[in-house]
């Protein structure tokens, strides 16, 4: 089937738009750091939050009681307040998401709106690209990076709103803008067809899973750096040394929160990666007559899997929790990036389809 | 696994944190530390999480050279090249097994130790899980408000009935219950536990990985791999002599080959004709006729890159293709001494510029040999032929003729793609270009060679891997186990009921809960929902009898833990 060139141009235009809007969102997230109102999260470690929360809960309880049957007593405590409204809501959603965003200040509102608009434009770019080439739009490296950053943004927005970690936006969205910008300028590939070895529905399944997993792992990778930074800051403060960045770190989530968020995102991504590797093995079996052949790309997918597995184990091992575990997961993401950028491009193997020359 | 510690409860999963407990080592002050103790100590070390972690790192690290250096199994010609370009270094790398990393003893040592460590960890945990499935949850702790999650409210029901209602609710939610027995001083509580599948999933994951390893070994021992180049119009039987290459597993003999036959009727390849991707293949299609066994019915099949043929327990894959120019050679006597399609192999220059040789041992008075280049779409660029497109739009061959001794009788094996010219002399000064149908007259009346046309050939890989299906099943099982262990949390919920100081106050119901392992989060929400359900069950049960007081139930203050750490609680 021939490539729809006009639709390809539409896709490119939407991608540029997404880049611009993402940049605005980064600016707004940064503005929140500079001018935003002090966040409760900053005070969490100091117990201030407990009072804030008690006050907030009282108002929630009153609000929901007003709407409830008159003979009902005020909703008792947190335990039964949240699920009374919606059994599926997350515990973090004691304040509804929209209201939580509003309460976070107008910089965050602007940043979230920009990020969502950008994600919509980004998704449109990926979909139109797919329509232009009549296949899943992650068949070469440019398309792969475009799609994985789209996954990363959507996944991060979900996590950010769910856990109310607005201050992480500047880091993750910043990393997305840089990655997407580099992809668009350095390795742009015009829409085109695939070689026959890539024309299989197992390609769609395998590469889709890999794209999803990479997009998900993108988020904990950024969080890992933030974690190490906060960790270093905390240790310096504990040691009585000069610790620059006080104003920024104070607004960030606590180190325990960062650790748990990282862990949960990786727990989300690891089975997807595992599935992607299995799907890849099935595809390899159909295309090349063996399900595993230690092809360089397979080897590096295996290394990535082992490193993330090591992270999951490290968190359960004395002496490895915390900083060391985060080094491990960052190493895992580094191996993933190495696989995409170096192995697939420079090392001969059967996965040499990146379309980068 | 968690930062949440439960007071007054047993640890759920001691195996998860084996390193927290100091182990007696050889250094520990003891009288005699015999060989048995050393073994025990070594085994404990091996099965500790720390060693498993180190082995995981070693496994990742050991895989790296396997991707950086050419490997004997996947890229033998790359190994040859490496020997040529690094003659000093290559033998040393070879001695270290770095050209065959994934079959090297040190690589095997790492993964075998890792799997031994895994077995040592998983087997005791399996027994422990089986044991815990038979034992009841622990007694309810005295102070439920100290648990990570707790709620408190009052009900008009008397304590015993309140506990009864709570037990019904929890049991309805699939919890395993423990009620007080006669030995207990307090009788108004119920313990409930759920989520045993988490540990089961975790074990399934690890055992399935073991299964994958066994499946791979199974394939290596009882499977085989073979290659065969098949020219269009020709056929072959799956026997050792008919195969170009045969790599049997340790326990495979020639008798294990299924004697199926395959004939290539037609092969078509199409290519993208324009645009940036001009020359990239767009589709392949190999039409074959096969019989499962000699004399069996002939069936046809369209072999494609992603569509192997399953026949007689083996799978046949299309892994490559090329052109086989057809030559007719007559010798000095005028006899036709060669008339066949000769497979040429595409070189690295692209667009299927292919090289090959023609050996004519029967020619008289001297044997003849030709080295040739086949160009599917030929363009003459400054006197040399170049191929500008992979399809055969303007085919041509370029030949250099030799006469003399081909050296085929020496007994040494010869490649069909190489001409040994050491005992031959060149007949033509420059390469001679032929179009289909054209002939080249050899000098001194030695005969003629005619380029009559070309046919495509395909290269087929034939594999038999009995470990394939087990590996797939184990892979899926490992994924299932992973999902179970990540999505299910092992949690306990306790309910205590106490009658208030006076009948007016009704009964105070305390609900407490903890999740030892809550990787995906969400126990907060589940607990909140459960507490609400218990409360409404109590409220519904209460009006059946006259309430001791009109005073509405009152909620307690949120427990301190909940306020102090509201987010990301309990993994």
Structural class by secondary-structure content of chain B: alpha+beta
Strand content of chain A: under 5%
Which ranges of chain B are low-confidence, i.e. pLDDT below 50, for 5 or more consecutive residues?
Answer: 1-26, 546-571
Count of DSSP H/I helices of chain A? 13
What spatial form of chain A do the alpha-carbon principal axes imply?
globular
Give the DSSP E fraction of chain B (strand runs of 2 or more residues).
Answer: 25-35%
Short description:
The complex is a heterodimer of chains A (357) and B (571). Chain A is mainly alpha-helical and 357 residues long. Chain A folds into 2 domains: 1-48 and 82-193, no CATH class; 203-357, no CATH class.
What do you see in this structure?
The complex is a heterodimer of chains A (357) and B (571). Chain A is globular, with a radius of gyration of 23 Å. Chain A has 357 residues and is an all-alpha fold. Chain B is α+β, with helices and mostly antiparallel strands and 571 residues long. Chain B has 10 helices and 24 strands. In chain B, the strands form 5 sheets. In chain B, strands 4, 6, 10, 11, 12, 21 and 22 form a 7-stranded antiparallel sheet that branches. In chain B, strands 13, 14, 15, 18, 19 and 20 form a 6-stranded antiparallel sheet that branches. Among the domains of chain B are: 88 residues; 128 residues, Sirohaem synthase, central domain (Double Stranded RNA Binding Domain); 119 residues, no CATH class. The relative contact order of chain B is 0.15. The N terminus and C terminus of chain B are likely disordered. The chains are: A mainly alpha (357), B alpha+beta (571). Chains A and B meet through helix 3, helix 4, helix 11 and helix 12 of A and helix 2, strand 1, strand 8, strand 11 and helix 8 of B.
